[in-house]
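Field: COMPLEX_INPUT
Field: COMPONENT_COUNT = two
Field: RESIDUE_TOTAL = 958
Field: MODE = joint
Values follow.
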Amino acid sequence: MNDNKEFVKEITNIEKDFAKWYTDIVLKADLADYTDTKGCIAIKPYGYAIWENIQKYTDEKFKKAGVKNIYLPVLIPESLLEKEKDHVEGFAPEVAWVTVGGCEELDEKLCIRPTSETMFSTMYAKWLKSWRDLPFIYNQWCNVLRWEKETRPFLRSREFLWQEGHTIHATEEEAKARTMQMLNIYQEVIEDLLAIPVLKGRKTPNEQFAGAEETYTVETLMHDGRALQAGTSHYFGQNFTKPFNIKFQNKEGKEEYAYQTSWGISTRLIGAVIMAHGDNRGLKLPPKVAPIQVIIVPVALHKEGVVEKAQQLYESLKQHYRTQVDLRDNYSNGYKFNDWEMRGVPIRIEIGPRDIENGVAILVRRDTGEKITVPINEIAQIIEKLLADIQNNLYCQCEKRNSEKTNIATNLDEFNKVINEKQGYIKAMWCGSTECENKIKEVTGAHSRCIPFQQEHISENCVVCGKKANTMVVWGRQY
Amino acid sequence: MNDNKEFVKEITNIEKDFAKWYTDIVLKADLADYTDTKGCIAIKPYGYAIWENIQKYTDEKFKKAGVKNIYLPVLIPESLLEKEKDHVEGFAPEVAWVTVGGCEELDEKLCIRPTSETMFSTMYAKWLKSWRDLPFIYNQWCNVLRWEKETRPFLRSREFLWQEGHTIHATEEEAKARTMQMLNIYQEVIEDLLAIPVLKGRKTPNEQFAGAEETYTVETLMHDGRALQAGTSHYFGQNFTKPFNIKFQNKEGKEEYAYQTSWGISTRLIGAVIMAHGDNRGLKLPPKVAPIQVIIVPVALHKEGVVEKAQQLYESLKQHYRTQVDLRDNYSNGYKFNDWEMRGVPIRIEIGPRDIENGVAILVRRDTGEKITVPINEIAQIIEKLLADIQNNLYCQCEKRNSEKTNIATNLDEFNKVINEKQGYIKAMWCGSTECENKIKEVTGAHSRCIPFQQEHISENCVVCGKKANTMVVWGRQY
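Field: COMPLEX_OUTPUT
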């Protein structure tokens, strides 16, 4: 047990300093590291493998939904960025500019894409001729750069990896349906794969994407009661198709502007997984996204037959599950148990000489710590069930926390009191004015998360101004 | 047949102007397009799907070979780039510099990675402690930027997509073995997946990667007899580990510098596929990498039951092969046949009312133009065999061309005559001096492709200076 204590000491207590706990986990679970490029991280194999699993799951859903992948330039000429007024206002302050190429000063500076609406729009204008070409449902998996002042690994990094889907359609209805379709896919990714329940709704105009007509979001709640925007889907109407001249000939032979959407999720989701599920022992990875689902730790490595039996088990399990066997001879069992718990591996198998004699092994669940002894020849089926249980349990734990951390407020004092005491989501009525929204931000530090699709009637009046209000907004402090 | 002629007219004749033919194919087969960012292309869905197939195949091989994916920053501080003398000399002239970030002039400018040896080395120095940590076998799939003056889609684009693997090892032997192992994987990718035979060997010092001790290459020969370097694998020795201070404690407790490798293939391979296999009718895609392996073109769409039968066939085939059905009602059959031939789809299925009556369909091979009538209920098995045949035939066609276009030379006049008349590879003896190598470049425009692993004794003396020579080099003009 000594090992245990020594080891856990290295991680900051989750209740004492959540921010420090987060950074400890990122570094010690070997997910990422800082680099010499300020504000940019190195995503290490264990962290990148999580991203690969997210990509694979998402890309399969995309392909079924008719999405095609393409790749557009990382550099965007200044003149393109400037074509849509709100968009350039939103993004110009946070872009990096290339001013020199191949030893020469450039005539026109190029920004590194912070997002690619302008580049997609330019190409779409070139490619679109007739209604027969529509829709374009294209996506790219790529890096983007936003010159953030304060950065945190995964959550807010100057460079991050994401997918950005951009579509154009012949009609408003079709574009709006696509906006929702992709939001629903994000819900699946986050709920089904990452085991984090989402709050789905529309952003208030204040929180909309720069240039969008409507922004929809899937919001998640972290361990400390702060909210994290996990994915967004935007309906642009003709805000970009007009300045970018994205026109087509309709069936009647007349020219029309197309209707546009965009949608994205990013490596930020890795931060969400850490903060939604982790505890004082470290990471807890949902089995579906875990790079290692089962870790085999042979006990008493030096005893005859133990390594062989562990290897044998590994060979049989790895065909069904992402499995590894820990044969390191310079660490104690206790250290190894802690290490794999810290790295969030859903199931640990312990197997020693006596277990082998009895034809059994011990399974330990990362989520509950529960230990069960199981016959070796039934282990594969038991693991299947156990992984499903763990996935489900992690989801339920979050759901429970969500409901515990969701409160209501009917006036600003109450709002402020509740958020200071309990953090979390606050449901409150809103009159629709930007002044009232700003007031809440100013007084309480909470942003509107969204206008949930599932509306409730909390009270008669706006939580700020007291005027009659019909819209319920969910608010919360955010990452 | 009218359709046919009209359509084919759009593509430049391959023998008349190969460069123009190439650009025609890139644009008309919908692989890529030019953008507003000079020297950078948009990779369209059909082109990107080829890249995805290359990635999938390669990444699986990598993972089996113990490679782990990571992601490092796209921006590299100037001071890092400057640490290895040869490397900075090689790359500094062709990088793009970020000098402004978030509206402020930067203290230190950042280059967009042209390759990431310096960034990997910096991280490896941080991560490496003991011999137990070794080896690091990491790779990233990413974009890179090189400020080329003359660009061509896929072949030489300012921005391109690639993978760059970087490894460090405890011993020279292990690092050298890894260099070869990865070169062999590239051979598999190019020969097995892309159906292009490679010439494998070591680069002359002149053609080595900036900073490498040894560079190995897989070279390919295109339709016009020019060579294309398709993949390279470098052994660095301690050239980077010393200036970057990548040290570890060996088993005896002493500090040692590690040994390093790097290796890469890129979207350039799409250019290789176009130029190795294409003909006057357009692209010819090897079935293993083709985004669409089978295209079903129902003939007489308006006749009862035709669309239904085509759909039915599509549903059954798509489970085994990447299949599409062409239901466009605004193009003639002739146009469609030509269109899919131009896009290089390996097998076309034609099915019309009479075929349906007889329970047959017509299969047309893209590589030979051969047509066969087959019973519908045997079609899936016949396609399997046919796709394998086509894959194999494309490889053999290239092999045949390689041997036709490989010649020898024993003196410089002969060399010059042969390369002007026949292009292709020239085998000739070389004394090992850079002067002789430069002389060939100057007089004939040919670069040394490599010193092949399979050596032959062409003549006694160096093709340039006439001194005794034991090394056979293969030369050729290049892309």
